[in-house]
Every structure is written in C-alpha cells, then in structure tokens.
Amino acid sequence: MRDGVARYVAMAHEEQAARRRAWQEAKKWRFDTVAVHGLYTVEEAIQRNQGAIIEPIYLATSQAYRDSDELEAALAYLIPTWCYARIANPSVYYLEWTLALLEGYGCDFETACCATSSGMSAIMSAIEPFLVRLPGKESEPINFVASAHVYGGTFQQFSVRQREKGIEVRWVQHPERVEEWAELIDEHTRFLYGELPSNPTLAFFDIAAVAELAHKHQIPLIVDSTVATPALLRPLQHGADIVVHSVTKSMTASGFGIAGAVIARKPIVTNIPNEQLREDFASYIKFLPNRDNGPNLSPMQAALTLNDLRTLRSRMDMLSENALLVAEFLESHPKVEKVSYPGLKSYPLHHLARRYMWLVDSEHDQRYREKVNRYGHLLSFCVKGGHEAARRVLDGLQRIFRATDLGRIKSVATIPAISTHQQQGEEGRKLASIPDNLIRLSVGAEHPDDIIADLDQALARV
Ligand SMILES: *Cc1c(COP(=O)(O)O)cnc(C)c1O
C-alpha cells in the first residue's frame, strides 16, 4: 500500500471508532429511540452538518477527494466513503443503519442493511448471489424452495424471471407444514424463501423450525417481512439469515415513494464458497453486485422513508388495533364467507401468529406494562356470491381507496385476482389459495367506526 493511501486509512480509524461507539450506544436504546435517532448523533450534527437536527439530504451524485491517495483508498473501500451515489450516499446510510438496528433489535449478533430502489429489487438482490454457477459445477441444476404464498410480483420474479435463466423454484403449498419444505430440498437447493404474514392470504409458518431445517442443509432462510415490520416481528431473532422488505409499504406509510431493503445477520449460513458473502451479506451486495447492477436507493427517498419510520411502533400498534376491530366486524357479517386475519381466534394459524407477533417494547409501555400481541394492518375476506359480488362490494366503497397498495396511513382495498395477483394466472392463484371473491384490505389510521361504516354500506349492495 502506498504511504499516502495508508495515511488516509489510519486517519479513518477515528471516524470508524466513532461510528462503532454510536452503534454500541444505539444497541442500548429502546425501539422508538432507535427509530427516531438511528446513528445520527448530536456530535455528527454539530461537527459535520451545521447542527441540523434532522439528517441532511445529500442529493449530490459524487464525493470529491483531497488527492489521488484518498481517491484510491476510497474506491478500494479502505475508508468510509460514499464516492458515487449509485454505490453509497450519506443520506441512504442513515436509513440503512436505522433499518439494520431495528431488524436486529434485541439480537446479540451484528446486522447490516442494503437499501434498494424497490421491494422487488431487494428480493432480486437478496436471492441472485445464491443462484450463481459454481466453478467446476457449471452443468449442475440450481433450485430454491419458496412458499407459494407470496406477493404476486415475487411469484412472477421466481416463476418467470428465474425460470428464464434455467433456475427452478419449488413451491411449498402449505408453508405451515415443515415436512413440505423438507421434502423439496435436495443437494442443489441454494436457499429457502418465505413471506409472513403473506400478502394477501396471511399465510404463516414456524420461522424457527424452517430456519433450523435450512441450516441443517447449510443454506440460508430468507424472509419477506414487509407486512409485519420490525415493530411486530423480527425474523432474524428467530433464526432467519436475511430479511427483505418492500419499504414502500408500512415503513413509508405516507405513500411517498418506492423503496426496499435487505437486512442480514453477520454471518449467514450458506453453501456458496464466498467468504465476503457469508461474513457480511448486506455489505457484500451493496458494494459488489448492486454496484455493478445499479438497483440502489435515491437519497431523497431515503429521507422521506426515514421521516415515516420514526413513528413505526406506535403506528403499527394503532393500525393493528383498528384492523382487529374491522376483522371482527367482517367476521360477524352475514354476507362475508370467510375472514383471514392472524389476530382472529378463528384464523387457522392463529396459534403460530400468536407465538411470533408481538408489539415490540409493549412491556415497557405505560399503557400495557406486559407483552401484547399485535397482528398488523392487513386482512382479507371472501364475499358470499362469488367474484361479481366481491366486485360490487369493492365498487361500493366510498372512503376506502380501490388501489393495489398496502401499509398506508389510509385504508386501501383491492381484489388480488384481478390486480396484484392477476399475472400469475388461475393455476398460480390456486397454488397460492387466492379465490376470485377475495378482497384484500389494508386498514389505515382512520377512526375504525368510519372504516366499518364504509364496509357496511358497501356490503349492503350485495
Ligand atoms: C409490495 C410488496 C413487494 C414488492 O415491493 P415494491 O416496493 O412494490 O417493489 C414485495 N413483497 C411484499 C409482501 C409486498 O407487499
């Protein structure tokens, strides 16, 4: 290493030590404090950002360096830097650190995050490093095992885009049955993938048991935890290796833009012989594949998302309480055939959801003083009378928006068979148990009486 480069590496030690101290400090805080502050400290504000109490938005594309030695050190990733905004950016870092801390809340291992331009690019970033041809084994088949109860876009990415590349997805139809996962794994399986609670059927599985199964085969478990958010469930704590999010949804409840994230524990379990990938998966994809493929997040979106994240816990608490009331109303309605909501006692997987879905820090909340279950904002229900009846109910909604969206501060509803899960076709929907009279409802922060009144008048039309 050139002397000049080495000098910059030595100079960076203090900055790295300060960051580590901030991280250690944040690990002692409660969830809300992490969500509000992340790693943006008073010292950093005063010394580097003119005292700004809110994380600054750096819209610049690139960072300037003092001389060629600093440039070389930075581009070799030897010093903390943000060089070029496709690779890294200070505002995006604030979001990534906060998300890594929130998903790792209560965990005694380290976590890291790579923010991405969308939930779909987060999923792509999380799976593709495992689907590479390995030296000496180029002709061997590659597969992965995934719950069939996934978001429609995920279903397409797995069954169309991966299949185009000759990679096989093996669908688990009943993810709550661990034997079904086990039967599909062979020596060519690269990872297990599940979503919970799933969109739109609220499927659930035993995370710890599926993680244990994955690790027995030296492969990681990847979980899409979009619907739960870290305020209600943190899969890494239960043994998952990697969590993906459509940050677009509950985390950016305002509805101001698309974003995604990959959060991984350090290290992960994998049978891919790649040291960097195993030791720090999120940083690996951020600095290598995503640098080359370019799906990273814009700084403006990072700031908008951070702004929404600060109130994640209290918002998920309120949305969950509203959703339970709405679910109970629908369950008792004569025109409703069936309601799926993990919080309902009638929900077949209620026992599993009850084991895993807790409002974080409720035992430290003056209102509760004990651990309380919360089940999120998403529910689905089937309307008696089939598809046309479901359309009439959807069309009758006056306050609730008809939109292919969820996790909003406003209630939104859709019929997945003709929207989010249209492309996967009837057979794909049968695999994922999505009938065409199913309405997906994401309950917002309106007063629940008004949401119920809107549903009541819409149901009166059939
Ligand atoms: C919306 C959604 C995605 C895709 O996220 P985008 O941000 O729309 O790309 C992935 N998983 C789940 C569960 C979702 O609801």
UniProtKB/TrEMBL annotation:
Pfam families: Cys_Met_Meta_PP. The modification N6-(pyridoxal phosphate)lysine is found at K249. One of its GO terms (molecular function) is transaminase activity. One of its GO terms (biological process) is L-homocysteine biosynthetic process. One of its GO terms (cellular component) is cytoplasm. InterPro entries: Cys/Met-Metab_PyrdxlP-dep_enz, OAc-hSer/O-AcSer_sulfhydrylase, PyrdxlP-dep_Trfase, PyrdxlP-dep_Trfase_major, PyrdxlP-dep_Trfase_small. SUPFAM superfamilies: PLP-dependent transferases (SSF53383). Its cofactor is pyridoxal 5'-phosphate. Keywords: Aminotransferase, Pyridoxal phosphate, Transferase. Belongs to the trans-sulfuration enzymes family. This is Aminotransferase class-V family protein.
